[in-house]
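Quick note —
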Amino acid sequence: MRTVLRYLKPYWLDIVFIVVLLFIQANADLSLPDYLSRIVNVGIQQNGIEANLPAVMQKSTFEALGRLFQMEAKPEDFLALQKVYVEVLPDSPQAQSLSKKWPLAKKEPVMMLSSKNKAELDVARAIFLSEYPKLAAFLQFSSMAAGKVSPSPQMSKSGLSGLSSMTPQELSAQIEALDPLIKSQIVVLGLQGEFTALGADINAMQSSYILRVGIQMLLITLIAVGSAVLVGFLGSRLSAGTSRDLRNAVFSKVEEFSLAEFDSFSTASLITRSTNDINHIQMLIMMSTRMLFYAPIIGIGGVIRALSKASGMWWIIAMAVGVLLGIVGLVFALVVPKFRIVQKLVDKLNLVVRENLSGMMVIRAFNMQDHEAKRFDKANRDLTSMMLYVTRAMVVLMPLMTIIMNVVSISIIWVGSHEVAVGSIRVGDMMAFMQYSMQIFFAFLMMSAMFILFPRASVSAERIAEVLNKEVSIRDPEKPIHLSKPVRGEIEFHHVDFKYPGAQENVLEDINFIAKPGTMTAIIGTTGSGKSTLVSLIPRFYDVTGGQILLDGIDIRNLPLAELRSQIGFVPQKSMLFSGDIEENIRYGKEDALESEIMKALEVSQIMNLVEESPEGLKRPISQGGMNVSGGQRQRLAIARALVRKAPIYIFDDSFSAIDYKTDRAIRSALKKYAADSVIFLVTQRVAPIRNAEQIIVLYEGQIVGIGIHEQLMKTCEVYRDIALSQLKQEELV
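Predicted structure written out below.
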């Protein structure tokens, strides 16, 4: 996973923005239940009146507070209140303004909150909320004693309703001992009576409060939605960009592979790693940006806020989270070991599909459709069975989560209703606690989803890292040597040995020869003698394990790979064409080739008729792999692609096998003039095409058993003579 994480570095700024936006969104989401609580507790139950310093107060009430402070010997506290309030007389301009909301200001002097100093206001607020409950309770008891009002629910819950005959000192002591929640409700009750006395419209105050808090909730919701949209955009850009970079890195790495590295990975596996595995990582990054940072903030913040609302119900959250973690842990233990198996089964299925598509003609020729159908069905069923196991284990989570959530909701309502009944919490706080518990629950649910996604993505990351960290055996030299211009192309094999990686025995042993410019070196031998391996060493598809190969006197391992391969026109055994048209395929050999150069290469390779017979000419389409042309045409187009380079070295690795003798002779005749100054290597199984070669190398079991021209080898090399006699009549060999 560490290898993959390196590809996130270019997007560090996006990650920072995502974390900041998620923090904003999480705080916005966490604040919404609190606003809902305020609407229920203050807006509905308290008519929009908060336990706070009132903006306006009757002068008589203010004076009563003064007498209360005097009685309790706290004159300095009353001075703190006097600092923040100012008297407004009925005939003053301020009274006219206040009378719109507080009509009593037209008739009687009132006290108006006037200070803007935060420190003074904080001190005054603390004093007021501490002492006003005593005054409010005393006034209500006075009304109760006079028979004007009945005991309020708050008084009933406090246990004070039967104590209306107590002295002010006794009442003060009882109020001091009350729960802070009861005290705040007494403040609200007193302020409600105060505002009614001032002539305020309580219903209008309630509507105004609910509307104001509702608008705040709407704005916070818009902030949360906006943050979520931006996080989605940045997360998509981050995940898509990282997966693109990973695909590029894997592709670039595979392009650097020598044939030795290709032997470590199947083609199907490399395709799966470049697509399916990277898709899993992309999904993990996208989900991580949404969940990995967001869930902890919501979970921790939700716990803190939930406990601040109703600390007595903490055990409900703890129990639910414990059960959830147990279920997720069980699913995790069942599913994670299967992910690696799933990826291997995907590799196997891709391999079967690839072999079936590429070998369709062979399958049909041997009537093996049923066999291949069964083979595909087995691979498909194995993958399906494993995926069903994983899916069934994971799909159990959702119904279990739903059951747990419903149980938690019922538990909160059941316990919370009893708490509300005894006055420990308010209805709005219970509703907020329920919402916070759901947020905590979903935070853990998101984290559990990440725990399930992460193992599969980590398996994919390991598979990608295997490719990216694969040591490439053939690289450019640290201190390269460059060829002198013009390049002659002379190739010398000097005591060359070679064995495949991991093999015990040499495939080639003590190979010595020189191929000079303007000559053809033919390589012939029995099947498996190492002919193709020998010519693969020249462009460094493999590196020699002993000895050296020299190009113009320089060891090819000291040359930059691009410079070495630019001097070689290579035609492999399997003629591979690319989807496009004829011109694009020929330009693969030389991008800036002139049309005249392309036409000349086509003419030498005897494939001009394919261009001339087609209305599209050079734009004639070529399907993937060149499947819409014959094998011989495919070989000749591959030869033309190599010839257009005008290279000093040409390698034809059994490239004339699908070409008839007449065309073969025509190509070799034209090639002799076209590449008169080049070194030509011709690997072949036929004797006839190489009878006039300047140098023939005969291989047998990886060793040179004969070297010379045709006539010499017929006399001195038994292996060559046996091959020749098996193909030609005695009189043709003379």
